[in-house]
Amino acid sequence: MPTHIDQLDTPAVLIDIDRVEANLTRTQTYADAHGLKLRPHIKTHKLPRFARRQVELGAIGITCQKLGEAEVMADAGIEDILLPYNILGTEKLHRLRRLAERVALAVTADSLVTIEGYARTFADAASPLRVLVECDTGMGRCGVQTPDEAVALARAIDASSGLAFAGLMTYPPAGAPAAARAILAAMAEALRSAGLPPTMISTGGTPDLWSAHETTIATEYRPGTYIYLDRYQVAKGVGTMDDCALTVLATVVSSPTPDRAVIDAGSKALTSDLLGLSGYGTVLGYPDAVIAGLSEEHGTIDLSGSALKPAIGERLRIVPNHACPVSNLFDRVHLVSADHVVATEIVAARGRVD
Amino acid sequence: MPTHIDQLDTPAVLIDIDRVEANLTRTQTYADAHGLKLRPHIKTHKLPRFARRQVELGAIGITCQKLGEAEVMADAGIEDILLPYNILGTEKLHRLRRLAERVALAVTADSLVTIEGYARTFADAASPLRVLVECDTGMGRCGVQTPDEAVALARAIDASSGLAFAGLMTYPPAGAPAAARAILAAMAEALRSAGLPPTMISTGGTPDLWSAHETTIATEYRPGTYIYLDRYQVAKGVGTMDDCALTVLATVVSSPTPDRAVIDAGSKALTSDLLGLSGYGTVLGYPDAVIAGLSEEHGTIDLSGSALKPAIGERLRIVPNHACPVSNLFDRVHLVSADHVVATEIVAARGRVD
Questions:
Q1: In chain B, what are the helix, strand and coil shares in percent, each to the nearest 5?
Q2: Which of A110, A264, A297 lies closest to B256 in CB terms?
Q3: Least CB-CB distance to B251: which of A88, A267, A268?
Q4: What are phi and psi of A37, to 5 degrees?
Q5: pLDDT digits over A169-183, tens only?
Q6: ipTM
Q7: Pairing with B245, which of A156, A339, B80, B198 sits 20 to 30 Å away (CA)?
Q8: Domains in chain B, ordered, with CATH?
Q9: pTM greater than 0.95
């Protein structure tokens, strides 16, 4: 087994465990100071080891986006899971019922169609399935649009024998926490007025993590990327490059001109996510290098503005724009402390598409 | 086992085997008519079954971009493999030597550093490693820039006891075949003048597939995406939507407004590759629907210009912008004929990052 990162073949994903621990501890400390409960989203790491660590440090449970991810985490001993997704389809609903029999589970719905599926599946269940109504607080993705719709869905949940109305869930857009807060408050108020007070109000997102305590009506917060951070989160001011725990180790395989280096990490390693940024990642130690283009197996670095030129064969560490989908592209990741490889972990919840 | 696509859980990848067969046959027939040799790139499908079928239909061998893919294909009985990549690093070079002992193998180089690694590794090999010089014909990625550089590298290969200079390799940019041809011809001419005539001249790319016969000096052509086609290739005029063999089956999980539907296929299913196109795929049966945004597990469809509105729970088939990275995101794909599931295949060469 390799004991130093120089012995690893490339491309490879390195996870700095000291930074992971610092990121987790910093966030849990912040949450504790404000009486906030954390329910971390495991999509970023997809590793049972880190999910268990998040709970150990004080998280009240975890968030999974996919039933398949939740099944992996239940197998790993996690006991409290929120699936903030509309689960539809016979096969998935059967799996959901089986999952609900072994962990404390809550799901979301933003339509009667989804609620009817849950109600059919849990009609004869020993304990009711907790269902939150998803509301759109500006993201423009899923979620009810008005307080009236939220009340109507809460009533439908409440009227179903196998279901329990549990509250509200939202994924707010980055950078607009005040506006999202106002929408969420109006939804909650309408539910209280209708006699269906939300016991859970779940919100999240790493970009606005440090203002989470201002959403005082929330009962829990679901950050995901905070464990690794990435170039996008640094751009949003959540941390610095020195806090980024996930890097892609790549080798310079070609340098056809003095201003161009090509690495063996393309979109199959870094993903083509731009998230509004310029370039596909930050090359550590080469502040003026720009990862200008990716094909599947090549990353093309523009060195025209960089006095430093990496040599062919040189190994580079890259902070990707978006850490989460990188975790989904690698069967294994290497946990490192400084340049030492501490462990190699199978990404157990990778590729759980359904 | 599901026998109809309605029984499959979503998101799922469907491969229409009748279209695959038609695409493969059409291309092989075209190649045969022009005396062209095909060496298909397996990165698109990553399936031993289809690699074998390509060879059975007349391909002279296959192309793999990664050593790990080549190892999978060698295990599957493929006997002739081109790896058009600079292979660097001790571990990879050891694997390359082992691979060369069991298949007819050729690799590429565009620098002395790469050649030196090959030379060291194969110095005492029973038969020499065939090495092609990669040249840049306008792609701006890897490859030597001038005929003089090509000659210098060919000489270095020729002077190494464990290596055999085999010719030229290029991946030309889409839409500029004439310019690429001229550069390639100049490289070949310089090599002939230097007494190192290229016996292999390998070019490729599906976008300019139907003008492949105009590059008369090429000895082989490496199309990849032609087996499935995709939205990008249709935009380039290589085929029509009715030729596209790979679709992503997704379910509408939400419709928060009449003009918005959300599907359970996001960037983890469709990838965030745009390739210059508008939107992240074509929704079959909904010509005016626009897949306007993707997050990891959600695809947001803008229906503002569409009179047809898919219902929650409805299943949609989507032609992705780029088929190849989709194959890399799913552990298995379903082979279908019309709406019938014929087989489910493990994507054996998925995730071979090194």
A1: 30, 25, 40
A2: A110
A3: A88
A4: -100, 135
A5: 999 999 989 999 999
A6: 0.97
A7: B80
A8: 5-11+238-346 (2.40.37.20), 17-227 (3.20.20.10)
A9: yes
